[in-house]
Amino acid sequence: MQLFNGQNLDGWKQVGWDHFVVEDGMMKTEGGMGLLYYDTEKLGDGTLRVVFKTAEGRANSGVVIRMPEKPIDAWYGVHNGYEVQIDAGGDEWHRTGAIYSISKATKENQKPAGEWNTLEITLAGPKTTVSLNGEVVNIYVEGQEVPPRKQWFEPVRGPRPDSGYIGLQNHDAGSTVWFKEVSFRRN
Question: CATH says 12-144+157-186 is which class?
């Protein structure tokens, strides 16, 4: 099922600062830290498919999954869900496909700025599998060992639900990311 209709942000709500706009059939990040979330329903077992491109190699964004409640601010998803990172310039814990500072991406597989990438996030109960451009780059199972939290902006550690709300992050004014497809296929 298509979560983004290519025309407007029907079914989506923004929290935090700044926003997303729809241009030429794509969602585009604008401004500072914020979270655009799919307000219609919680998503459980299935595959979330996100097709995106970045304006520059260090553009930062993310796909937030497993949020137990509708977010109330821009940081809710980071601390209460899991952020599947979009950032070609990050290290293994912070590059595209990593679950931000929780589970590292095992390889770099993002295409250069301006080219389309396909991120598939498969939710199967407590297991999350992340594929980037057709290759599995991360498998995380709820409860596995994670590194200690070092900074306030890193996710609060702890369990997340098997189903939840999903969202897209707009990170900062210097990061522009376009999304042309956001869809979900139930298992």
Answer: mainly beta
